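fwd from M.: "can u put these together and see what the complex looks like"

so here's what she sent:
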Amino acid sequence: MSSDSRFVPLVLKTDTEPHMNKNFISSACKFFSLVFVFAFINFTSSAQEISTEPAAIKAGESLFNANCKACHAVKRKLVGPALGGVQDRAPSIQWIKDFVHNSSAVIKSGDEYAVKLYNEYNKTQMTSFTSLKDEDIMNILAYVKAENEKVEEVAAAPTGGQQQATQDTGLSGKYLNIVLIGLVIILLLLLIILGLIVSALKRFLDQKELSEEDREVVHSPISVGSITRSSGFIFIVVFLVAALGFKAVINSLFSIGVQQGYAPKQPIAFSHKIHAGQYEIDCKYCHVGATKGKNATIPSVNICMNCHNQIKQGSLTGEGEISKIVAAYENNRPIEWVRIHNLPDLAYFNHAQHVNVGNVECQTCHGPIETMDVVRQHSLLTMGWCIDCHRKTDVNTRGNAYYDNLVEIHNKTGKAPMKVEEIGGLECSKCHY
Amino acid sequence: MEESKKVYWKGIEQLANNSEFVKNAQNEFAQPGPEEDLGHSRRDFLKMMGFGMSAVTLAACEAPVRKAIPFVNKPMDTEASIADYFASTYINGGEYCSILVKTREGRPIKIEGNALSKITNGGTNAQVEASVLSLYDNARLRGPKANKKRIDWEDLDKEIIGKLTEISAAGGQIRIVSNSILSPSTKTVIDRFKAKYPTTQLVQYDQVSAYGMLKANEESFGSAFIPSYDFSKANIVVGIGADFLGGWLSSSIEFSQQYAKTREVSEEKKEMSRHYQFESVLSITGANADYRTQIKPSQEGAAVITLYNLLASKAGRPTVSGGNDKINNLSKAADDLWSNRGKALVVAGSNDKAIQLLVNAINDILGSYGTTINTSLTVNYKQGDDQAMANFISDAEGGKLGAVIFYNCNPVYDYPAGDKLGAAIKKIGLTISTNYKEDETGSLVNYVAPDHHFLESWNDAEPKKNHFSLSQPAITPIFKSRAAQSSFLTWAGESNADYFEFVKDSWRTKFFATQSASPDFQSFWDKCLYDGVYDLPEAAAVAVTFGGDVNGAASAIASNYKAGKWEVVVYESGNIGNGSQANNPLLQELPDPITKVVWDHYVTVAPKDAKEIGFSESFTKVATIKANGKTVELPVMIQPGQAAGTIGIPLGYGRTKAGKVADGRGENAYPLVGLVNGSLSYAASAEFTIGEKSYQLAQTQTHNTYMGRKAVIQETTLASFKSNSKADAFEPAISTWSSPDHKVDPETLSLWKGHDYKNHHWGMAIDLNTCTGCGSCVVACNVENNVALVGREEVIARREMHWLRIDRYYSSDAQADDWRGVEEAAENPEVVFQPMLCQHCNNAPCETVCPVAATTHSSEGLNQMAYNRCIGTRYCANNCPYKVRRFNWFKYHDNRQFEEVNPAMNTDLGKMVLNPDVTVRSRGVMEKCTFCVQRIQLGKLNARKERRKLQDGEVVTACQAACATGAIVFGDMNNPESKIAKLLKVRPLYKDRPTVNDKEADNARAYQVLEEIGVRPNIWYLRKVRNKDAAKA
């Protein structure tokens, strides 16, 4: 999803220098607060202060993704509350730890904040994470805190990057326009010059003595009729019509079996715009097969139920659509989705090769899926389309020892990046066997 | 090639060079295509064109809606499109193989060997490879039946328990009849059943019995057992009618592996075993032997006595009377055996305890016990008791039995007295069959309680003492079948009839305490399931003392065998086996390793004995054979190597209730089996007359013949190889004007610039010495690559689709113009097997002639075939010097015409076996071996996903995986560490272009077929070496 220009600055910002300063300031703060804690409070835990060390944040990020992400986001409510600022809201850090370890015990103990939270979230119980150690939870909090602050910073100035991006894509188009306008001007100038030459020649001939016939020829009026009757004109028109007709037939033949734009009605009105766009759920959270095998796989119902166990109401369709998932789950009846991307049986395509090995973004082939309420086939999915990409795309060889031999041999021939085409990406048996 | 070279021929037709053979050999396609003789006119063309255009337009209007249906609850670790492998066990009667089952989306699609097994060591054979299709057999029972009517399991159990209780209370006899039971848990289950119904007895029999051997060992050593043989420790092997590379003792996988180890030779190891074979029918064991002698079955005993006497006199032991000193090679074998005492092995196939006892005595003289024979490691493949079975039949006929349960066996078909049993079944009060089909036995009984197919079952096995093996289901039961063991437990009134729990419990009590690696039972169980096998320490070899009565045995032999004018031998063929899987079309279309006959049943006859028929491919005559009071009529197959005066009949045909594939093919040969010296005898004297009726056998032997090219097979003798490792090597030279002696290596000449293989260069090496010709690679290739089966008629039209064929060549030292020599050769030829598949030529002749570039070359050395680009001109096949390209003359899938012979592509059930990674080809396109490109692609993808280099051994072709002897080695020749690079010792031909395709193999045995035509194949063959004396054998 990060190919979308909106997210570019977010990625750029993570490890830039100003951050270092902030780290310094916050460590200073940490020092002072530690002094404060030592001075006045009965010290119960060795690290009740949320770390801002990059290592802790990084560790927290992977823990968060592994354990919390299914139900919590930093800035938004999902199944559970948004976690941003939780360290300030919750009664104490120790309370957070207890709640994570065993939420039901905390609720049972009659803790006021816990009970309030429980009721607020439809009496949904949070899974107990007994495996998370105290320092793990502190790392997660560190990540949440850092993420919360960072997002706010970014939100202040997201526009620059976007403009940059649009400029980038518009650049070649603009050149083309300028070239076109230039061409038109040159052609007009040519026309004017030709007109001037013709009138100059006429004047020159008028000054000479000409026979009656020649004079007639020189002064013959150019009428619409004379042009349309001329054999040259007829030839051009016939040629153009035939050529266009031929092109249209060829184009239509090429489109046989091509279902670009195919957007069938699905048994459940699932919206990628909400899930992938609004909630930014990672594509691979649901399409688990994309990094592993041929099929990206349509998620099984139990994956839907990870969240929809709790979320029973949708923002667009209310309960209607979500209840279908619940029904499928409860009746153990699979959902019959309509397949949109249909490759012919004779073509072999492997998601893992592209997504995992090639690091190709989903959107490269599937288009702006995060904006689609109803998914449609974005790309042609023709062989020409595949080949075109294989000709243009650089092989993602970084950190992949498999390609070492090929890269070594390739580097002897020049500096241009190695394209898929060069390592056999256009060969028949790569996709047909 | 020099004049002194051998002449090779695929069949007598070729030797005789009759006009039909010549005509067929010269045409790539024997018959015109089905449409070529229809006389299409221009009008037809226009009509077709118009129809085609409108059809395309209509088809383009609306694409079909396709559904994508995910799981509701996705099982852990199962991903769509990613294969799962389950370790399991192939059990078919007494046949055993430890296997890995490859499943895709919950369907078993391929069986491979389990390398963790110490018994089968990752090997398979054709029957094991094919058994995956038996799972999807349409003839399987859909559920239990009572008197031919469907019934619920509850009602069935109620009725059976009621009747059993009644019979038991009245003291009626109950019998459970089965083939050898390998499973210890099943035996415990049967014991529980016996405890409930005390009049029950278990009767075990084997289709091909080894009762004589059990009895002989009882008389020799005091207990009835079958020992483990180790051919890998034997320098000299003598086989007397024992087809140990084929069906003998159901151990072909194990014995082939051991045997092949002793047949590997190289410049570093210039030693190999020597193998003498004395037999009547040419078996694959005889075909691989160094010295083969034809004997009549009645001479087997005499041969054993002679060998015993020769050795006994050397050892100073008393000799016995009898014997026959006219048998060729016997004294030579005795000399070799004697000088290799302790490293020698003699085996005999006879089921006569007298013969086996003398063989034991011979092995005792040779000191084989404790070296090549391990008596403490007993095997369980053959537990059948001929005496008990004969008693059972007479009890049944006498109406003495109250109830009989046939546990997964079919004695009405495959027991010699099956017809008597079939008639007697009506006299038995209660008859039950647990067979998964309503077969010859199952259709006669009262109740059929179908067991699962072995791929759906939990089970365990003890193939050898202290070696255990687990079966686990690789698919949910397709039909309403139930584990036979659960049925037994239910009928025994056990409260918990779940056989899975039963097996698990018995492993808990038996084995958990015997190990310490796993602390809790669950992890032990998981490990056993994962490995598929569990081994207890092998019992120490115990010294045995031979105490048999050799004189008694010799006199029994003398009185029991009389030479007949005609003697018939019934044997297990290399494809159909004992007939239990006869309804498997993969096996029906697998050419028999020797006769190369498919789909047909025949009687093999020596060329001398069938002179009136003549040598023709397209026609033979039907003969009548009468033995043991039973008459069969079968077409004659003239078989070089067959002993004169003997006829051979393969078992496994003549099924009547096996299913559409097998029913009505041939005759049942089991009734020809008689009783000699207290055990079943698979040879008998017979009457044999060749009738007038003519018949055409479907055989592939002369299909795809090379014309007049000689550098196809290369072989030498060990003696020559020792003195010069390039001895008898054919190294072609091309005449040119430029070089000094006007001769150059064709490798150095080329019009082409060569391909650059920057990363991988796939290649294959096939060792003609260790290839036994068994054919398991052919079946594996069929299953892996969705190769269509075409049926008998199409094979006769020379349109079989096998990508990999095994060419079987006969040869003799005689020249083609030495008529006397040729005739002699036809009687007892030497045999060479050569697996032939697409050679993936670097200068491929097929690629240059394709008008649409449908066959092209890859950057890894593969000759690629794009089916959807192919327009079917067949130029490529015409231009292929190896004749390995196959044309789809018909649409073999979804075509009712082929439903019977090719169920894997025509029925919903059968289609479940198809490999989803390989396209099912349509009519009108060419196809051929791809080097299992789907496996190459998968291996590379796995390496790339893990961001590492591809390791050698990660990509294994289906044929390589199936080859028990390791004769096929495949790999990346650019990787100097790969097995193939080391085996062939490949190096780039040009130092300045290390990545170019031209590579030289420095292995002295390596050669390429038809090297002189310069197509630069990527397959090397390793020259065959026979362990013969240098002088003419």
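replying to her w this: The first helix of chain B runs from residue 12 to 16.
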